[in-house]
Amino acid sequence: xxxxxxxxxxxxxxxxxxxxxxxxxxxxxxxxxxxxxxxxxxxxxxxxxxxxxxxxxxxxxxxxxxxxxxxxxxxxxxxxxxxxxxxxxxxxxxxxxxxxxxxxxxxxxxxxxxxxxxxxxxxxxxxxxxxxxxxxxxxxxxxxxxxxxxxxxxxxxxxxxxxxxxxxxxxxxxxxxxxxxxxxxxxxxxxxxxxxxxxxxxxx
Length: 204
Hints:
One of its GO terms (cellular component) is nucleolar ribonuclease P complex. The protein has 204 residues and is α+β, with helices and mostly antiparallel strands. The chain has helices spanning 59-79, 90-102, 116-127, 168-176; strands at 26-30, 49-52, 107-112, 133-150, 189-203.
């Protein structure tokens, strides 16, 4: 799957070294990416609120989760301020409200790989409501681990092409990868970097 139009506008640091092309008898099993436990919406402002988006996450489900976290953050911020407190002057109350606005909690929406375009569209949804939300986008990389295994019955035959082919760019990229030698010892694992996008959203 190619990069989406929003993803193509971003710049990512290229961190992978040239990966050795695996021999035909080997296959790669991708491990799930470990995530920190998802924080409760009611946890304090010191606990980061993160929404992880996968390629299977429904778009509006992600949007509603972000909105719920932002509503809870707003409640926490305003609960500490009492406009009816007679011990404080109007100036002090206004200063507290202004300080609360400056310290808005952010909700971080994160995705890797194929889900990047979806998380960028989530960010765009909030960005279009610029009177209500502030949005910023960060790019980065995540180190992942792949398990390498030997195929049990390698009886794969080359099928003739029937109109559906890889793009020329992908073909060239594969051809450029160094081939594994005949005496290549298959390691149990390999590490590689994948692209990651984080969209930070807060109320204005």
